[in-house]
Amino acid sequence: MAASKKPRNRAADHAVLAAAHRVDQLRATIRHHSQLYYETDAPEIPDAEFDALLVELRDLEAEFPDLLTADSPTQVVGGSASATFSEVRHSIPMMSLDNVFSPEELQGWGERLERRLAELGDSAAGTALVAELKIDGLAVSIRYENGRLVQAATRGDGRVGEDVTANVRTIASVPHELPAGAPEVLEVRGEIYMPIATFVALNESQAAAGERLYVNPRNTAAGSLRQKDAGVTASRGLAFWSYQLGEVVGGPELRSHHDTFTLLASLGFPVNPEATVVEGLDAAMALCLQWQQHRHDLDYEIDGVVIKVDDLALQRELGATAKAPRWAIAYKFPPEERTTRLLDIGVSIGRTGRATPYAQLEPVFVGGSTVAMATLHNQDQVAFKDVRPGDLVIVRKAGDVIPEVVGPVLSERPEGLAPWVFPTNCPVCGHVLDRPEGESDHRCPNLRCPARVAGAIEHFASRGAMDIEGLGEQRVQQFCEMGLLADVGDIYSLTDSVLLGIDKFQDRSVAKLLAGIDASRSRPLDRLLVGLNIRHLAGAGSQLLAARFGHLDAIASATTEELAAVEGIGTTIATSVAAWFADPTNQAVVAKLRAAGVNFEGPAPSELPQTLTGLTIVVTGTLPGFTREQAEAAIKDRGGKSPGSVSKRTTALVVGEEPGASKVTKAAELGVPVLDAEGFMVLLDTGTVPAPSGGTP
């Protein structure tokens, strides 16, 4: 460590000593977690907390410059190469990026860029920038000589990486040979990642086999790439985005970073379609904020947006620090994973009796909100994750997704913590919990369990069911405790004389609630079916039954076989529906609803020709003459299905104005026909996917 200047007084001396001590602590901690992240693919803390350690160290080194050393984690890239693989020395170092975490910090980088450009005699006004998605994967460099893939390496410490050539060769989106005219030597840099759908399928197979679940796609991708057996890598469904060039010999002259993308695409490399050239920092910031809101629309994980100066000559003039280029910055999204203390594990009882364990946490800000509780799913998941009250745990909250506990930080576990044991009795009514054979959930079988009753009534009144304004969770709990509601049928027995006698329930609120109850009587049959809380029956199935049978009584009297014969229903839903209507308790509820004048009639059968029977049509963007809902209704009215995502079963993708790029990309990958508005009309009329203009279907 460099010698510090003689302190002017004891207070200054104490401050330097305290800072030096903290710097040593931070460097040791960061190196430990860096090794876990880069070398063993088994991080103990979330990225956001690792970033926070780096920021604290960087700030201390800025405040006390004499403490800065060349080997500080703020001055080096990534981690060391693992001994598992041979070393590869990069011909051109693979640098990392500096990060910013807020619009204000991004603005600060923009101002520094302006000053540097001014020093170089260039104006920042009109400087083109490229905004790229920051893929949450593993950086690699792939080398081609005379058009053939000869070597692939991880970034490592930026100068020396690991030879993963055999493993990278198994990734379908990485070309083995380049077309004629390719540069004599070409180093392509990019990110190996695992698509979210692949990650979900992998964890489903892990769960089915009783194996421990993988934590997230990034770590799983890194671990899958760094396998001794390339066959394991081949089985993991990894993918690749290219975004940069390293050494190039004999290639064309490129003037801009965006020209790089054009070259890469022409040589057969996958280039992320969301990379965008913008003029000025304000436009780049707008894209950062847009992707922060829509990051979960993609089938791969991103943790930010990278902003780069587009002009390659300017990039060279701006240069780099020891660790990162000055012409690029990574805008990192707010953290979706943080650590906090697990105070206790409770069990909640839902409207179907499902007993769900949940974590009671020391409040932590994650994913844009403060989280004090998170789901633990079921008994098996608690056992898989082995979380115990008292543990330091990783909490994840992605967008609007319910917060969940990812797992414990085992290195921080206090001694003597006993494993948590799932209760045998319902915590609400005391009834013995049941776990049916072959299922992962425990359930309270008591139909009169107060938690089940209240949950079922809340669900009946919810927006997706009967949409009764004024009958929310707190009001339902109050009415149940007062004995006013024992099931959903009792809702229609509420009167102003009863409600006005309730303390602090004002005339206006009573009138609003009664109006909401009255309006719910005319809701469509499928909404009523949803509200009845029949296990396994959701919105899509309810629409199918309402359309097929046309009346609640017809559904109630149908046999399991007749219900299962409806396309899209199946035996599981049919059995559950038949059992629900056969239960005398539920029959009494139906009788109350009938007496209250609730609508039992379904929609009139469609008179349109069923041209799309058996076809699956996905719509993205805005079509002339249709809202999104109208376009989907037009498909369903003709017997087709219109899900929200593209898959192998998709017959065609209909693309309007401002479509979702991920759907279009997925359709191209799967070879799904893409139709415009005119083609959509032909499809509706004929049931035939028209040939694209100038080609064949």
Features:
alpha+beta; Helix Hairpins; D-amino Acid Aminotransferase, Chain A, domain 1; OB fold (Dihydrolipoamide Acetyltransferase, E2P); 5 domains; five-stranded mixed sheet; 37% helix
Distance between the termini: 69 Å
| Overall morphology | globular
User: How many helix segments?
Assistant: 24
Largest sheet entry:
6 strands, antiparallel
Summed up, the domain count is 5
CATH class of the largest domain: Alpha Beta
Average pLDDT, all residues: 87
For this entry, what is the oligomeric state of its chains? single chain
CATH architecture call of the largest domain: 2-Layer Sandwich
Rg calculated over all Cα atoms: 30 Å
Task: Give the CATH superfamily of the largest domain.
Answer: DNA ligase/mRNA capping enzyme
Strand content range: 15-25%
Helical content (DSSP H or I, runs of 4+): 25-40%
Total E-strand runs: 20
User: The CATH topology of the largest domain, please?
Assistant: D-amino Acid Aminotransferase, Chain A, domain 1
Instruction: Report the structural category.
Output: alpha+beta
Unreliable runs: 1-6, 693-697
